[in-house]
Every structure is written in C-alpha cells, then in structure tokens.
Amino acid sequence: MTFVVALAAISLSSSIDVSAQGRGERGERGGRGGGRGNFDFSEMRARIMDSIKDRFGFSDAEFKAIQPLIEDIQEKQREARTGGRSFAGFGGFGGRSGRGGDRDAGNPEMSALQKAIESGNNIEAKLSAFRKARAKKEAVLKKSQETLKSVLTIKQEAVAVTIGLIP
Q: What does pTM read for this prediction?
C-alpha cells in the first residue's frame, strides 16, 4: 500500500504543470476552481497500473490478462489492512467521515467495534469479532496472492514482492 501511494505521488508530480498548480478559475493562487477539486482518481489509478505493467515487463495482452488478478489483490489488501476503508476514510478519527457519511458502513465488524469503543461496552467481544473477520479477509487475500504467484515467472514474482503485491 505504501508503494502504491508513493508511486501515485511520483506519477502525479511528474505530470503536474507547475505554472497552473494551485490556481483557481481566474488564475489566482489557491482559488476554488483548481487544485484538489480537479483530482482524477481514475487517472491516477491508470498511471499506477501503467507503472506496474512496465515494472513487470508485460505486453499489453499479457497485462490485460493479469490486471484483474492484480486489482483483486489490491482490493483485498485494502480490505484486510484498513477494514474496507478507502484512502478517503482516513480523514479523521471516529466512526464518521468529514463529509458526514458512515465510513464503516461496508464493514459491520469495524462499525460494531467503533460503537463499542464509543460506548465503552463489550469492547473485548467486538475486538475479537473484528480480528476474526480480518483473519478471514487475510486468508482470502493469501489465496488471491497464491493465484497471482502461480502465473508469474520467478523474475515477475520478485517484482510482485518488491511492489507489495505478494509477501
């Protein structure tokens, strides 16, 4: 996950037009028309995937076949390590995001644990349930990693290890 974030930062920094960075609709710095509101997650994801493809040395056809396995692992890593939250879910502490939505709606164990923490009741049982659910997610992740590993050459396996797709 750290690699993906670093890779995204590198990809984005190399493509940003410095003269337009942080300018609003009228060209002033810090205006509302530019900057953060124009961030395109799908573009960032495509750049990350292109970088991964290059690191592995896949042809377009090879990558098209293996990309679903990589995306599956990335999703399962996120679920196993963050309780199912996306990067946007790290905006603060507690059970609610900064935009008023319930960050943990897709993860009942995380939601139950958060409620137990807030109430001070039944924390041990909810923590145990959360850990069991996470262990199941990690087992599913391991199976997906083994599937990817089974179709890679030894060099590609080494690349997968260096970018954090498999242990």
A: 0.62
Residue 164: alpha-carbon gap to chain centroid = 12
Sign of CA dihedral 150, 58, 163, 71: negative
The sign of the torsion formed by the CA atoms of 17, 23, 25, 28 equals negative
- Give per-10-residue mean pLDDT for the chain (167 aa): 48 44 46 61 90 92 93 91 53 41 66 93 93 93 96 94 94
pLDDT digits (tens, 9 = 90+) for 50-75: 999 999 999 999 999 999 999 999 99
Cα distance between residue 87 and residue 9, in whole Å: 14
Q: CA-based Rg of the chain, rounded to a whole angstrom?
A: 19
**Pairwise CA distance, residues 162 & 118, whole Å:** 39
| Phi, psi at 103, each rounded to 5° | -60, -30
| Alpha-helical segments (H) within the chain | 2-15, 41-56, 60-82, 108-119, 123-150, 154-162
